[in-house]
Structure formats: structure tokens, C-alpha cells
Design brief:
Largest sheet: 3 strands, antiparallel
Strand content: 25-35%
Mean pLDDT: 75
Strand order of the largest sheet: 1-2-3
Low-confidence stretches: 1-17
Helix content: 40-55%
Structural class: alpha+beta
Order of helices and strands: HHEEEHEEE
Number of helices: 3
Shape: globular
Number of strands: 6
């Protein structure tokens, strides 16, 4: 019984700490430039896989997954000139976003 308890505890600890500190720091830094165009106030990833980001300028983003975050990074560079988003919505067939500076876009997936 004790061995089973040890195995379960080890599995929970390993799963909870699967990403290294460097990997989490890279994601946090990338979010600063990808979404906010400024500093990130808070960054978290829930059990559902969604990434929640609150920017220093009070912008808030809920990102579906890492693939969406990577694509947002590309959109920021191509359409917002790296300044970040003031709003971003992922829909079933489109990405709708507003760049800092009030330029609006509706891009098909």
C-alpha cells in the first residue's frame, strides 16, 4: 500500500513540474512581446490547457493553446508591427484582433 502511495505522489509531482523554470520563463517573456507589447502582470496555464494572460496595460487574453500563441506571435509581427494587441479573439474560422494603435483585422484561419 505504501509503495502505491509513493508511486501516485511521484506521478503527481512529476506531472505538475513537467516544464522547467526556463521553459515557463520563455513562455512568459514571449507573451510579453506577442500579446501585450508591454510587461505581463500575470501568466498562467490551467488544467484545461488554456493560457490566461493579464498585461500591465490591463489587456486580458485567453489563449486556446501554445499553437494559437505561436500564431498570434506571427500576426503581431505581420499586422501590428510588434506593438501587441489591445484585443484578440479566436473564432472557429477567423482571428479577429485590434492592434495597439487601433488597427482592426479579421484574418481567416
Amino acid at each position: 500500500m505504501r509503495n502505491i502511495l509513493m508511486l501516485i505522489t511521484t506521478a503527481v509531482i512529476t506531472t505538475g513540474c513537467s516544464k522547467s523554470v526556463d521553459e515557463r520563463a520563455d513562455e512568459y517573456t514571449e507573451a510579453s512581446f506577442t500579446l501585450c507589447g508591454s510587461k505581463v502582470q500575470s501568466y498562467s496555464q490551467g488544467d484545461d490547457g488554456k493560457i490566461r494572460i493579464l498585461c500591465e496595460n490591463d489587456s486580458y487574453f485567453l489563449v486556446k493553446d501554445q499553437a494559437s500563441l505561436a500564431y498570434m506571435h506571427e500576426l503581431n509581427g505581420a499586422y501590428c508591427k510588434g506593438k501587441g494587441f489591445s484585443a484578440f479573439h479566436e473564432r472557429s474560422r477567423y482571428f479577429t484582433f485590434t492592434c495597439e494603435g487601433d488597427r482592426n483585422f479579421n484574418i481567416p484561419k
